[in-house]
Amino acid sequence: MNTQQQTPSAVTRATFDEVMAPTYKPAEMIPVRGEGSRLWDRQGREYIDFAGGIAVNLLGHCHPQLVAALEQQAHALWHLSNVMTNEPALRLARKLTAATFADRVFFCNSGGEANEAAFKLARRYGVGIDPAKHQIIAFDNGFHGRTLFTVSVGGTPRYSQGFGPIPAGITHLPFNDPAALEATVSDSTCAVVVELVQGEGGVIPATPEFVQTARRLCDKHRALLVFDEIQTGMGRTGHLYAYQHYDVIPDVMTSAKGLGGGFPIAAMLCIERAAQVLTVGTHGSTYGGNPLGCAVAGAVLDIVNDPTLLAGVRRRSQQLCDGLDAIGRRHGIFDPVRGLGLLLGAPMSPAWQGRAKDVVDAGLRHGVWCLVAGPEVLRLAPSLVIPEADLAEGLRRLDAACAELIGQRAHTTA
Length: 414
Ligand SMILES: *Cc1c(COP(=O)(O)O)cnc(C)c1O
Description:
The structure is a single chain. By secondary structure, the protein is an alpha/beta fold. The protein has 14 helices and 17 strands. The protein has a seven-stranded mixed beta sheet with strand order 4-12-11-10-7-5-6, sandwiched between helices. It has a four-stranded mixed beta sheet with strand order 1-2-3-15. Strands 13-14-17-16 form a four-stranded antiparallel beta sheet. α3 packs antiparallel against α11 (about 290-305), α4 (about 85-100) runs parallel beside α11 (about 290-305) and α13 (about 355-365) packs across α14 (about 390-414). Bound molecules: pyridoxal-5'-phosphate. Pyridoxal-5'-phosphate (PLP) binds near residues 143, 144, 230 and 256. Pyridoxal-5'-phosphate binds next to α5.
């Protein structure tokens, strides 16, 4: 225990290093307030938010309609558990099934949990047909969460190393390689798990041919096609869900991140035939379907599931792409931008290999918050309703940040 008693309000960034598990290394600044696409830190410095809480704050910070939904529910009912159902959860499930391919919904609290539910469902589904039908096929550099099952399905071996025996029966293939799928999917496969845009893996969109091949092979071998839409869902790509962009319908889909617009909630959605294996008692969650989360997510969905809003995402996407490409060309720092909608990645140019994090740090010095997707890609995932003026201002600040980096480099190599 810390012998020096400190008042809890006297926290600083150094407090993190004393009392938090050392699994993160957060930025020096500590934001204390947000409004729309702007954030303020303890010193009152203002930042343009191009990160959106890692593709979560779909409607920016403290959106008035979400605040109202949360406040209203906070005065009505906070929590019951799944011993009883509740109106916000039932309403949200109705809206999600009406808006998507899905017949049924399982609620939980995070992306990792939604995928855990999807993978457990896939296993029960497959094993119910044939005990040998338990192979899960996933892809290199895919990301599906940090539980032991989801890191094992994820395609970054480093994330599952050092934790002892990991779940077996998982095969990893190269992403966007239809021939590898063709050669591997068999009657032993219970699921093929795809991110339609690999997010953490570097903002890499799946090719239509790859997604179509996965669908065809799952049909042929009675396997479930699982789309992890935790990052791509809820309007992020300019469609409510990215499967609508590809026009390929999955059997199971997971949604989290943007679903609650900043309130923790996640969902596993699926077709009737798949849902039937989750009989009473086979899976569960204490908080899953919590009224507060479901009330907020219902309000998010009402706002996002709107053709005008989605058209706005595509328009902002173009503005951000053009701006980033111009910065990349001016400073020779990025290669052409990739991604879908407002999930964009600017790969570092050969001269700037491995230095995406330096761009993020320089951005913070210039008042704009961006993300990385691995060491080689600058990732942007702003609010879907970021004002076009804030987009322009954020791009100006990012341009200044890149100019500073280029200047430093000129200095050190001189
Ligand atoms: C973020 C993410 C997850 C994990 O979500 P958590 O809420 O962090 O558990 C899973 N899959 C994808 C594609 C993600 O982007």
